[in-house]
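Study both lines:
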Amino acid sequence: METEDKKFVINIPEGTCGFEAVIREGEAVKPLEPKAPVKTDLSGVIGAPVEYLEKRVNTNQFTQERSHLIVEREQITLTLIINEDDDYLRGKIEGKLEFHPKFEAFGINTGKIWAPSELGMFCKMNRSFFTDKAVNMKLVTDLMNFTAIVNHKIEQGVKENGNQTDKFEQTVNSNLPEKFTMTIPIFKGMPAETLEVETFAKINGREVSFMLISPGANQTLEEIRDKAIDRQLERIREIAPNIAIIEK
């Protein structure tokens, strides 16, 4: 195998006692190309912005005067924007209060349509959310053996002065209770609320289906929403008083 003699010139400073030379062959390692900073983009429960501020407010990662908080009460959302005037370093931390999956599954106040047997089976599998298990058992039995009488009354007439009347009345008499009580959390991470739920009948020909409505749930939702948001805003004002808070 042929080898090529190579000469190296090494200058050793005078007075050096020990010396080691390392000779590397091949191309030099290329330095890594610079990359843009990684933007902060986080989301979590309603308290996420407060949690972030508690841990980052004094770390020089951002300044309060260059940050703001957007409050959207209808969506129950708090969005913290940091480094608002820097395209590279701008970050977002979003906190949201979300409905509990089981509350959504019941479809209370959403217009969800239930067939009697379908609702009966669902209530049976979710007995833990009923205040009284005996009430749950009776409701399940009534739904699984649902009977109803639909009465129609039509009134038409013409008065002497020419005015016409055309009235239609419809009543449903069934074996179901008009209302029942549940204990169920409305939002994730929140304690359970006791709600009075009403059954509202919908008639399509000979078929009767139901919707679940609860005026109390709407009132409780409004109260919980405002309390949860106001509690977070109070903490943010304590931790970072110079952050602008904008309500939408």
Notes: Residues 19 and 77 are 65 Å apart (CA to CA).
